[in-house]
Design brief:
about 375 residues, Aminopeptidase, 7-stranded mixed sheet, alpha+beta, 14 strands, elongated, 12 helices
């Protein structure tokens, strides 16, 4: 027995192994002290730590619109933004609960609605309406704080891919001619202008012409409908062959809409042989004549005589006279003849931009 009465270590059953276990904590403490003393005299070499960004950048992705994303994005867009390509959509933002109605009902029924996500946030909106041969882009808008990042072009490129997957051959949209960024973006994505201009004359004097070899014969509604179908097809074939199928299908309603008011005239020579069709709309200070002529007449004296024969139906020549043409080729061929009479080319307030699905993007000078 030891003095404390506890007996020897061996007597208590610990042995050598027990002694080592008891001394282990003391050894660990001694080793830590030795390492600390050595580190105090050792220069510290800094390490470079590459930290990850707080928000991963994943770029832009165009996906089918979700209601929550659509609501958030519509809260950032104005009526001008949403109605740039279709004014009827922008008008909804001025109505009570208009944004909620757009997100829940109007846009889903207006066409296929897509959201462009940028860094996990809704940044852009696109609506595509399916037609016979083409998809019409009815809305293309980007949140104000995310513009000039190429998101509109990303959406148009996605539209081309989606239209191809849906079996469509064309894409088109109506762009305000004053919206230069939208026009530049469309041209950069391979869109071309369709019938973008007309000729305007703003002189009170009568045209220095005589209708010697042209006659303008008024048509009744049934005759006008048959004649219009024929000359629309011929204008697309002769003047806009690059988009003839589209002009005769999806763009037909766009071509015909301004012709609901006014009168149609069959244009013929003195022998009665028809060589064109004309439509006349008149107002208190403006008259608008639309001409569809056989290609052999474009820019020739007989075309100007035919114009004079149509204008003879007016009681007085208005101060502003606009002449529109059934095709872009017709305008280009006849422009110089009209300029000689004091006309000048004018860009439409809205220009139809057209792209063939799958074509390589290129700038157009059309």
């Amino acid at each position: 027995m030891t003095e404390d009465g506890g007996g020897s270590v061996a007597a208590r059953g610990f042995g050598q192994a027990g002694r080592e276990r008891c001394l282990a904590p003391l050894d660990r403490t001694r080793r830590r002290s030795e390492r600390a003393a050595s580190w105090a005299n050792t220069p510290i070499v800094p390490r470079v730590i590459h930290s990850a960004p707080t928000m991963p950048t994943i770029g832009a992705q165009v996906i089918p619109a979700r209601l929550t994303d659509l609501r958030r994005l519509l809260g950032q867009l104005s009526a001008a933004d949403l109605g740039a390509l279709d004014e009827s959509l922008g008008g909804w933002l001025a109505r009570p609960l208009g944004r909620e109605a757009l997100a829940a009902a109007v846009l889903p029924t207006a066409g296929s609605t897509y959201i462009c996500m940028f860094n996990l946030e809704p940044a852009g909106l696109m609506v595509i309406e399916r037609g016979q041969l083409a998809g019409r882009v009815r809305a293309l808008a980007v949140a104000p704080d995310l513009r000039r990042r190429g998101l509109a072009r990303t959406m148009l490129e996605a539209a081309d891919r989606l239209a191809g997957q849906a079996g469509l051959r064309w894409l088109w949209m109506s762009v305000p001619s004053a919206n230069l960024p939208a026009t530049a973006c469309a041209l950069a994505c391979g869109y071309r202008r369709y019938r973008p201009q007309f000729m305007r004359r703003q002189r009170p004097q009568a045209l220095p012409l005589r209708a010697e070899d042209a006659r303008a014969l008024a048509l009744d509604p049934a005759e006008a409908a048959d004649a219009l179908a024929h000359w629309l097809a011929l204008a697309a074939q002769q003047g806009d062959p690059w988009c003839k199928p589209l002009a005769q299908a999806d763009l037909r309603s766009w071509n015909v809409a301004p012709l609901r008011e006014g009168r149609f005239y069959r244009l013929a020579d003195p022998a009665g042989q028809a060589f064109g069709l004309a439509h006349l709309r008149e107002g208190p200070a403006q008259a608008i004549v639309t001409l569809w002529l056989d290609q052999a007449i474009w820019g020739a004296p007989r075309e100007l005589q035919a114009l004079k024969a149509v204008l003879d139906a007016l009681a007085a020549l208005p101060a502003t006279l606009d002449v529109e043409f059934g095709s872009g080729g017709h305008l280009r061929a006849a422009a110089e003849a009209y300029k000689a009479l004091g006309f000048r080319p004018v860009l439409r307030e809205r220009v139809v931009m057209v792209r063939r699905v799958g074509e390589r993007s290129r700038r157009s000078t059309t």
